[in-house]
Specification:
The structure is a homodimer.
Chain A: H1 2-9, E1 15-16, H2 19-26, E2 39-41, H3 46-59, E3 63-66, E4 83-86, E5 93-97, E6 102-106, H4 111-118, E7 123-124, H5 135-141, H6 148-151, E8 158-164, E9 170-174, H7 186-190, E10 199-206, E11 208-209, E12 213-220, H8 224-236, E13 241-247, H9 249-259, E14 268-275, H10 277-293, E15 298-303, H11 305-316, H12 318-325, E16 330-333, E17 336-337, H13 343-356, E18 360-366, E19 371-378, H14 383-402, H15 418-425, H16 429-439
Parallel strand pairs in A: 2-4, 3-4
Antiparallel strand pairs in A: 1-2, 5-6, 6-10, 7-11, 8-9, 8-10, 12-14, 12-15, 13-14, 13-18, 16-19, 17-19, 18-19
Helix pairs in contact in A: 1-3, 8-10, 8-13, 9-12, 13-14
Chain lengths: ~450, ~450
């Protein structure tokens, strides 16, 4: 296989079977079991991607696209071996068109690399999943995150795609126009298909103006539900909120330990308001009123870049802080999303369930979207704890579905949630499987992900 | 056929072969040639829709969903006869959930009927295509319109769908959560599929808060390009614009004649700013600055409902005014969308082309989106004029594609644009046709629309 690929790529350094490279592309930092690919290919052009896929399709070899490797559901693990297609060398920002509020980038460009190019024009690409993911990976998984309450997920911010199909055909969806009604929406179909319907090689994204003013507020509450209700009020009021994030007291404790900070260890909302100065200042008052109405314990706001960065750094480092807080434990994160008014009840249910099952846990939520992550810390060598985590996770998903929510708010299905997808959308599976069969008849594209075996 | 359907529906009044009902469902107010269905069925439940589809699928009878009949691309014309499935009796607002910022409605609910239910909660469904379309129709065609510059198209405002498939199977996509990453995005696939992949029977839509203040500005310019550039500045600046509409001098002349108004007959931008008072007032100053920088001739703004309604009434009646202005002529409207910086050039090109070809025309644009409609008024009995209209329309689309735009910004493909879809997305047609075959193997769903024959 390596020889055949070398013939296509013509560069030894870009067709690797080195054990360390295989290992790196066979594992991620989640609980999913690693499985190495047989070879890692680093294409530098769409033509090379097409050549690899033509070959792989003819030979029935699995192909797993790989970007920053920051997926949380095992998307990049080549569970059936084959080729890991590492797109990080396709890292060219093809065009920034400030006059059209868009940019065109190859799949391997990271969001911070893109924003470095757009920032001088006063523009930015708004989706922020935390990790410095690649745009191809973000499109493939429909990444979202802290800013989605304002700007939507990746799907809402992509105008057009270049995609290489399983047989090596290159197609283009969408256009550079800000809207289109030209036929079925294949852009949205490829976005979130997790590498199972095609390999995204180029992305045309919307850019947004960088606001005149950003103010961040950190607000603590006596309980999580009061914090949730405040978040719902902020979103419902149509305020200029760009982020509405919720952290529980355990997460604050971990952040204090990790960052040597002294934040009050109480349920906390982090709110960012961005816009014209008058609008932001007016909305800050409304946020404070809403928070006081819910009995907020403290209300701190910061204006200007440095102080604000410190505040958000705490939030952004939550994931690392939590890893550090339970050094000897395995971690696993859930990703439910419920109608926003159901968030307080969902979090109360999660807390009661975790306590009843004797599990250590933390709660983080993109509260403005109703998307919450319950983090488990457990002893992986203890079968009883492993079983308790699984049972509890199942119950959390079941609860979210029972109130009209979804098993995955933003992390996708990948390896770990195929059963939950069946539970949530069993009626749609035949359609999804039909689309998969049509687009990838030989089943070479990221096999074992998203869908159960046919 | 009527007897079989009567057995399923059990109500003579809801299975009609009356000539006037057949005529009404066989024509629309566009240039597309009418063709009557064999029968019109008025289902009152999803079960009845499913029963009709099971029967039609078994008997290979075409089924064409019908809502308000306000489509502009011939979507509802049963070009191969069969059943016109009129969903207007499925007009129940199932649930308004202000606390979740969503509403659930049957397909036949119109947008104004929905907004009447949500308004007491201070909320509204934002998509406004002008016509009082049904939500099912708006979802099926991914309708957009004057407010899409702020709120996006219908697709961006739908969370979940109930869809009856060709064989009568009822499926549910999406959820009531504000975001989801659970499998392929079938919600987006059904939206804009124009009745060719399934019959949408229920829609769960996002609601938005009604703003504290709305101010409308009417700004006239020495030429269309200056008006366009001002629109681009407004959108690029991220202002609180809810509508940014452009009308040419000919359209203003028609409005004055139709409404007995005395607006200056010059290229005009209609801009609506909505939001918190401080934000709107601040942005109004910025709009005025931008307009003055482009040499605006006049700048009028209105605050408060009555004056504002008068202003927008002029815009909303543009379509009727244009019909009245050319009483003996046939009319046809194009629907291109280009990257916003290309709009001034596209409109200049259109003006030159129309003048060179000796055609009467008007220009209307959702300028904030780069979406423009060139209206032709012509003598349908004159083969030379008919040919000139066709040639000119082709050239307009070709121009839009040449600058990275699309052949349809919001009206869809329907009957009239299948050739343009082939021109724009020839590489995607095999995928679209494959999806169509999978979801509708007998080809009963709105045959002859969107896709060329296989």
């Amino acid at each position: 296989m390596r020889d055949a690929l070398l013939e296509l790529i013509g560069d030894e350094a870009r067709v690797s079977v080195s054990p360390s490279v295989l290992d790196q592309h066979g594992s991620d930092f989640t609980h999913h079991r690693p499985h190495a690919p047989d070879v890692v290919v680093f294409p530098e052009s769409t033509d090379e991607v097409a050549a690899v896929l033509r070959y792989a399709n003819a030979e029935r070899i699995p192909v797993v696209p790989y970007g920053a490797g920051s997926s949380l559901e095992g998307h990049t693990i080549p569970v059936r071996g084959g080729i890991s297609l590492d797109l990080t060398r396709m890292d060219r920002v093809v065009d920034v068109r400030p006059q059209d509020l868009l940019a065109i980038a190859e799949a391997g460009v990271t969001r911070t690399a893109l924003n470095a190019k757009t920032q001088p024009h006063g523009l930015f690409f708004p989706v922020d999943p935390g990790a410095d993911a690649t745009l191809g990976g973000m499109a493939a998984t429909n990444a979202s995150g802290t800013t989605s309450v304002r700007y939507g997920s990746t799907r809402a911010n992509v105008l057009a795609l270049e995609v290489v199909l399983a047989d090596g055909t290159v197609v283009h969806t969408g256009s550079r126009a800000r809207k289109t009604s030209a036929g079925y929406d294949l852009t949205s179909l490829f976005i979130g298909s997790e590498g199972t319907l095609g390999v995204i090689t180029q992305v045309t994204v919307r850019l947004h103006g960088i606001a005149e003013l950003a103010i961040s507020a950190r607000i603590t509450f006596p309980d999580l539900e009061a914090a949730c209700r405040t978040a719902v009020a902020i979103v419902g009021g149509g305020l200029t909120a760009a982020r509405v994030e919720l952290l529980d007291e355990r997460t604050l404790r971990a952040i204090n330990a990790y960052k040597e900070t002294s934040y009050l260890e109480a349920p906390t909302l982090f709110v960012e308001l961005t816009g014209a100065e008058a609008a932001v200042l007016g909305d800050l008052e409304l946020v404070q009123l809403a928070a006081e109405g819910e009995g907020a314990l403290t209300f701190d706001s910061e204006r200007g870049t440095d102080a604000q960065l410190a505040l958000w750094e705490a939030r952004h480092h939550a994931a690392f802080a939590l890893l550090a807080a339970f050094p000897d434990k395995a971690r696993r994160t859930s990703d439910m999303c419920v109608p926003i008014s159901e968030l307080p009840g969902a979090i109360r249910h999660a807390q009661e369930l975790m306590s009843a099952n004797g599990l250590e846990f933390t709660v983080l939520a993109h509260a403005g979207d109703g998307n919450y992550h319950v983090g488990f810390a457990f002893d992986e060598d203890d079968p009883a704890q492993r079983a308790a985590v699984q049972t509890t996770n199942d119950a959390l998903v079941e609860y979210a579905l029972s109130v009209g929510g979804t098993c995955s708010g933003e992390h996708g299905i990948g390896l770990g949630k195929i059963g939950y997808l069946q539970r949530e959308h069993g009626d749609l599976l035949p359609l999804m499987q039909g689309i998969k069969r049509q687009l990838d008849p030989n089943g070479i594209l990221n096999p074992g992900k998203v869908l159960p075996p046919d």
